[in-house]
UniProtKB/TrEMBL annotation:
SUPFAM superfamilies associated with the record: Tubby C-terminal domain-like
Bias type Basic and acidic residues, positions: 205-237, 295-305
Gene3D superfamilies hit by this protein: LURP1-related (2.40.160.200)
Protein name stated in the entry: Uncharacterized protein
InterPro entries according to UniProt: LOR, LOR_sf, Tubby-like_C
Signal peptide (from-to): none
Origin species: Lactuca sativa (Garden lettuce)
Length: 324
């Protein structure tokens, strides 16, 4: 199966190792080596590109293949072009996510001859997290290549960013390498997108939580203010009740006060009357005493007077009697 060039097709199984660099250097983002650790290809990014453009160079630094992400694509389609130019006439194949995937990882591959794209020419399925994926032919059962995490290759550091590829006989291994690199970029983009989404969600949650805390604080302050207002109203009502007396109560209070005044006046009058009575009695006693004294002193002795008169009369009678 020739896709890129017949020189990359071998009648035997080809084992390769792909190492992705966390930091790009002059040799590119990806390095592809054979079982002996010999560098076969380097994949480099094109700087200042909006298409996530990558160029695959051979060991002699000759551009073999260019693949880039197509803009405004619903399923994240990638296109691969022969050589360094990315023109329509150089298009070799395209890759996109399956519309109805049955696996965690599922890509549909369409060769340039497949204009209708009613069915894919190849399919990539499997679990990329465990680096366990297969590339199938159009029939869906014939395996063209396998991706795994086993590396029995010298001069290659085993790690998370390193994985192995086993290309079956008579299959273009540059084509397989391009598919695997595109798959890596798609998964990397999805992972980054998920992280951003998660971070955004977390920030929103934190913001919502902060907003909720703020609302709770505001609500608490409002409740405290309402409680203070209620207490203030209660105190005002209590003060008004103490200051305000109903008309009936006022009348009763007035009558009670008048009765108290009358009682006090009567008591005062009684006290005055008793005092006057005592005084009158005392005066009467004094008058009586004075009267007795005066009477005894000035009244003549009628008995003596009468006796004197009787004596005089008797004397007169006796004188007249001899004359007769």
């Amino acid at each position: 199966m020739v896709v890129v060039d017949a020189q990359y097709v071998e009648p035997f199984t080809v084992d390769l190792a792909v190492q992705r660099k966390s930091v790009a250097n002059s040799n590119g983002n990806f390095t592809v080596v054979d079982v002996n650790g010999n560098v076969l290809f380097n994949i480099k990014d094109t700087l200042f590109s909006f298409h996530d453009r990558h160029i695959l160079y051979d060991a002699n630094d000759k551009p073999v293949l260019t693949f880039k992400k197509k803009l405004r694509s619903i399923h994240g389609r990638w296109q691969a072009f022969k050589g360094e130019r990315a023109t329509h006439k150089d298009l070799i194949f395209s890759v996109k996510k399956s519309a109805a995937p049955k696996h965690e990882t599922e890509l549909d591959v369409f060769l340039v001859e497949n204009k209708e794209e009613t069915a894919c020419d190849c399919k990539v399925t499997g679990d990329w997290e465990t680096k366990s994926c297969n590339v199938y032919a159009q029939d869906g059962s014939t395996i063209l290549a396998e991706v795994h995490d086993k590396q029995n290759i010298t001069n290659v550091v085993v790690g998370k960013e390193t994985f192995g590829i086993t290309v079956y006989p008579d299959v273009d291994y540059v084509f397989i390498v391009a598919l695997v690199v595109i798959l890596t970029e798609i998964k990397s983009y999805d992972s980054s997108k998920k992280k951003k989404k998660k971070k955004k969600k977390k920030a929103k949650k934190s913001s919502d939580s902060s907003e909720d805390d703020k609302k709770d604080k505001e609500k608490k302050v409002e409740e405290e203010e309402e409680e203070k207002e209620k207490l203030q109203v209660k105190e005002e009502i209590k003060d008004e009740e103490e200051d305000h007396v109903e008309p009936e109560e006022q009348e009763e209070q007035k009558e009670e006060e008048e009765e108290e005044v009358v009682v006090e006046e009567e008591e005062d009058d009684d006290d005055d009357s008793e005092s006057e009575s005592d005084s009158d009695d005392y005066d009467d006693e004094e008058d009586d005493d004075d009267y007795v004294v005066e009477t005894n002193k000035e009244e003549p002795n009628h008995d003596e007077y009468n006796n004197d008169e009787d004596d005089e009369e008797s004397s007169s009678t006796s004188e007249e009697s001899p004359k007769k």
